[in-house]
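Reopening: structure tokens for the NAP complex, inputs below.
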Amino acid sequence: MTQTVMITGASAGVGRAVARAYAERGARLGLIARGAAGLAAAERDCRQRGAADVRTYQVDVADAGAVQQAADDLAHHVGGPDVWVNDAMVSVFAPAWEITAAEFRRVTEVNYLGTVYGTLAALHHMRPRGHGAIVQVGSALAYRGIPLQSAYCASKHAIQGFNDSLRAELLRENPGVRLSMVQLPAVNTPQFSWVRTRLPRHPQPVPPIFAPEVAARAICWAADHGPRELNVGGPTWKARLGNVLAPGLLDRKLAHDGYDSQQTDTPIDPATWRDNLDGPVDDGADHGAEGVFADRARTRSAALWVSAHKPALSAAGLLTVALAATGLARRRR
Ligand SMILES: NC(=O)c1ccc[n+]([C@@H]2O[C@H](COP(=O)([O-])OP(=O)(O)OC[C@H]3O[C@@H](n4cnc5c(N)ncnc54)[C@H](OP(=O)(O)O)[C@@H]3O)[C@@H](O)[C@H]2O)c1
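Re-run output (same inputs, fresh job):
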């Protein structure tokens, strides 16, 4: 069946990789972002890769009415949406006391409320039809805050709380509409070359770094199978487990190395650095899916494979135990 898929933050990074993956499946696409050049490039890219249809929406996800209008337009012209991926994000890299009240509000409006608005727009069309899949693009940081990213981490925690409430409501009233959150590790995207930062050196994702295609594979898998959560990459598992077992120890480890691990050795010039917090870096260039760390990015995740095959692996494990127990019982007789 040809799916209709809406993706927010679809012009660059993870969202662009998701758009490419669905284009290669021949899906009909709705792409949301603010910058005209990025959207136009994403549309060309998706058409070349085989998308059945592509509609672009130059919309800020912090504008609930505009997000709803985009959803209505997509539904009216091509149907659906069958899948809605909330991916758009912004951040500010700085200690909390250097982030202004307006910046905290903006990050919350884009990341958290943008996700809520996207979800409400999706539900408006999915609930009457009784089916659909909503995927929130989350992070290991939805469970574990790290230094220099308080506004971003808080917004991801908020999405996780919102999801738990909504999931229970849907299970009760609309079980055909599935809600998943995909917790990503560090991904090589343009984010780290246009995030607002007050740090002296170039921002980087905390290594190990994964290629955007790994994130896209996980997001498409979640939309297909509807798990409540999908943890991608060993670092995501480690962060979540570490936070449950020894949160205080993690606080001290992050205090010690959390500043350096989020910056390269290259100094940046604040006078020429352009960020995308209040508006897009719309410089006419196509920023694509990948960032500047391609040489360090892993293209596979064994932990994702395990997460995605959990039921099959559990069944195989149970079968092995049962066979071993039967063999043991026979030998005793
Ligand atoms: N990269 C990582 O290491 C990492 C790790 C864990 C989780 N994630 C998650 O992955 C998702 C994508 O991150 P990314 O690294 O791919 O980001 P990115 O490279 O900065 O791309 C962000 C995308 O969102 C769009 N966008 C930003 N603000 C928007 C707004 N207000 N309204 C509409 N579109 C907006 C951008 O286009 P315009 O600027 O043109 O609007 C762009 O298409 C996020 O949810 C993030 O939390 C990323």
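The radius of gyration is 21 Å. The CA atoms of residues 146 and 256 lie 11 Å apart. Marking as resolved unless the reporter disagrees.
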